[in-house]
Amino acid sequence: MGYTEVLERKSEILKKTMENWILKENRDGLNRQEAHIYRNMLKELHQNEQELNTVRGEEVVKQPESAESSTERVLVGTTV
Asked: Which superkingdom heads the taxonomic lineage of this protein's source (predicted)?
């Protein structure tokens, strides 16, 4: 499992956990400790998303350009 996959999985887990915290907040409210945990988890989710976007951007830059340049080959000097 690559680093990008780990970040994607962590993001999925954080989103699901945040969803549960939001439901609890809407249903019962949060005490001070829970609100603190909620805010820290939200910060962690944003940080993880930023890091994931950075890693994805680096992967796009590292891809070889051969896929782009080899889309079509035209023979020069041939007649149809």
From this structure: Bacteria
